[in-house]
Design goal:
Elements lengths: L1 E6 L2 E4 L4 E9 L6 E7 L6 E7 L5 E3 L7 E6 L4 E6 L8 E8 L11 E4 L3 E6 L1
């Protein structure tokens, strides 16, 4: 099993930036992808970005391309997501998750282990 802990959420004004962190532990050798997902009140959980932990390929939802950047520091077992030019529509609970070999699809079905989430609020 994999344990994931997110941090870095907060409240910012539109146009601001935040950097989320996801630290992984446990059976990390089983992970192919780390993904970031978000869920706004009353909406379904959606994939935001993913990174291949072995080859560092990255994948993004269209809604965040050019604004969010996912990266990793394997020495620290940590994945980051830099979020720039934030919009009120980015307001949500953000979760990181550990995925298998199809994690690049950024669907919740491909991710088995989840963190508790970190809240992001963007005000206009």
């Amino acid at each position: 099993q994999v344990q994931l802990v997110e941090s870095g959420g907060g409240s910012v004004q539109a146009g601001g930036s935040l950097r989320l962190s996801c630290t992984k532990s446990g059976n990390t050798a089983s992970i192919y992808y780390i993904g970031w997902f978000r869920q706004a009140p009353g909406k379904e959980r959606e994939g935001v970005a993913a990174i291949g932990v072995r080859g560092a390929a990255t994948y993004y939802a269209d809604s965040v391309k050019g604004r969010f950047t996912i990266s990793q520091d394997n020495a620290k077992n940590t994945v980051y997501m830099q979020m720039n030019t934030l919009k009120p529509g980015d307001t949500a609970m953000y979760y990181c998750a550990a995925g298998g070999m199809y994690g690049y699809r950024l669907t919740t079905a491909e991710y088995k282990d989840w963190g508790q989430g970190t809240e992001v609020t963007v005000s206009s």
